[in-house]
Amino acid sequence: xxxxxxxxxxxxxxxxxxxxxxxxxxxxxxxxxxxxxxxxxxxxxxxxxxxxxxxxxxxxxxxxxxxxxxxxxxxxxxxxxxxxxxxxxxxxxxxxxxxxxxxxxxxxxxxxxxxxxxxxxxxxxxxxxxxxxxxxxxxxxxxxxxxxxxxxxxxxxxxxxxxxxxxxxxxxxxxxxxxxxxxxxxxxxxxxxxxxxxxxxxxxxxxxxxxxxxxxxxxxxxxxxxxxxxxxxxxxxxxxxxxxxxxxxxxxxxxxxxxxxxxxxxxxxx
Length: 270
Hints:
The chain is mostly beta strands. Helices cover about 0% and strands about 40% of the residues. The chain has one helix at about 100-105, and strands spanning about 1-5, 10, 50-55, 60-65, 70-75, 90-95, 105-110, 115-120, 130-135, 150, 155-165, 170-175, 180-185, 200, 205-215, 220-230, 235-245, 255-260. A hairpin with a 5-residue loop joins strand 3 (about 50-55) and strand 4 (about 60-65).
């Protein structure tokens, strides 16, 4: 199967992760199967920041933002390319958003029950906060139409990323107040498990762009970037720390995996 996003560039299924940074969405549900002609791709409509995540039955979820107002949409396609969430794509969120913030902060994953998990930021409260949605294969909003409020601090929260744990709970990380790492675990039923979240602070540096992943032992490995100096000549170091399911650090000190290097190693789309 080939998914085509513009007139010059093609992606096969092995390169689906590169779709995260593509600018136009041209996957289709208008016919009952995937197009076999790269010159005539099927189309879901116009959009930006399209993301794809595979399901266990050979299908995919596709999530994207509309260009201009940056509303969040999703569709599930089966292995034959047929739409499974109605004939019209499903609106997840139409909350207010700023352009450059919205474009780089949409995330999509699939849990062990083939539910889609989406995280992003929006400005429904007047400031950038992080929200998460869980969407069943039939389009049901399992965490409510407004999603789970991951952050509610009255300070900017950006660059969210997520990972799904073996028990179908979800860990979401973000950059809090432009200089602090914040992360939260959400149970499969949408309950926040770590209070107001766990923060990693450094009085002598800015900590930005955290990303979570699951270790072989089922713990959570979090990566972040520690930056000192002034832009654009940051001294950047890549840090790692592992946390158990109660949010307790497993190493006495974080590990410096790379750096320092004198350039801004992190960005909001990494």
